[in-house]
């Protein structure tokens, strides 16, 4: 029989876990930790080996007493995807997406819902109230339906109506509150109290932290039982990273991994209580009364005690905090989809925009292992991202003979063979980067791309067929970029070709001088988005 202790980090109180308490009976702290008898789980790796993938293969480390009470839809066990193209774009070799989109309702809240609803079932609860900015309610609704639990979901302003409709579809009672998320939580709690209904404390519940930590177990397992250097997530309540850090701490206590990753948190400009506090070095966040972000998922104005716990974790294991605007997020949504085929919801795009900034600031280094928590309900917001002009109509009835085909880039390119083709020579020894660059140009149409893998080959190819533009790396075998540029500048046929240098190298003053006046643009890898690069190149060619 497994024994779980409830523990208060604030005052040190502990007792046997009977049911999820709302607060510490001694000091009143409202976030408690579940502690397990880890000494009995030293064989964890062998214990789980034969079990099916999913969160419950770690049930010894989850807060339910009887596995009969598990309510599952196959949550957890999501893939860890190597984001090669995005990694090449940012100069990160080991960028991974923990693809939580592949959960039953499309976000990592499926983990929370499965554990929370299982706990409710074990407690014999038949009706519950939850306040949510969308994803929690969607996930809880699915699992509550399955468990035969009647659910009430309270929503603040700005939750996309498509998300609310999805909740209603599962049979949940929907209450829309005109107010902020923090106000909505209060009203939901009062309603539950008046009606004598169980109020789910959301991210403050034991179920939340315990479920989130299973992401850590899975990440470690997928990395051959190692911890990454970074775990990056968009935060609202903050429980995702707190749970993940706890998961790695447990694996460390079991002697399975050697460390806990540093935690990168990102918030939407318009609601940055935690990012501001962290960057000011405060252990307590100042609440944001009226969040102005339209991204409801990230609109917790008052993170309360959760931020202090997060602060402790980030102090201990290292951290970084950044923010991005809603507009940057929509831009990044497009980049993620087009570069690596990953379509995400805005909250995730905010997080990735923040990750880009962390790389640019040099906080995240190119050889570090970075895991990015990726969720996505894209559909409720895709209209904001694509606008109205995402498809072309072909009306066959009015043009029965030759319907004009939609002009994709490719067709345009084919139709314009007479027009001068713009030849681009890419000199780059990193295969991934070269492939990514070629793809950017080829997908634009109108470009002919030649790739050379070092300076010598680059020079030969430039002499064979004069390109209109050369994009060159600096550090390459045989002949480096500096030498290549010097050779190009002494050749009267080649000296006028514009050159863009694209490199991960930090230049010394001498190296800068060597390039001065000879190149047209210098781009640091990891400090550009492909759209920006395109823009520069287009300007140079026109
Ligand atoms: C819930 C949610 C968040 C915020 O999570 P916390 O860890 O509670 O701060 C961020 N992104 C998505 C997609 C979410 O569903
Ligand atoms: Zn206490």
Give an overview of the whole structure.
It is a single chain. The chain is α/β, with parallel strands linked by helices. Among the domains are: 111-204 and 389-395, 3-Layer(aba) Sandwich (Rossmann fold); 410-541, Rossmann fold, CATH 3.40.50. It is built from 19 helices and 18 strands. The strands form four sheets. The chain has a six-stranded mixed β-sheet, sandwiched between helices. The chain has a five-stranded parallel β-sheet with strand order 15-14-16-17-18. A four-stranded parallel β-sheet has the order 8-7-6-9, sandwiched between helices. The protein starts with a strand and ends with a helix. Residues 8, 10-11, 13, 24, 26-27, 29 line the site of zinc ion (ZN).
Structural features:
39% helix, alpha/beta, elongated, Rossmann fold, binds zinc ion, 542 residues, binds pyridoxal-5'-phosphate, six-stranded mixed β-sheet
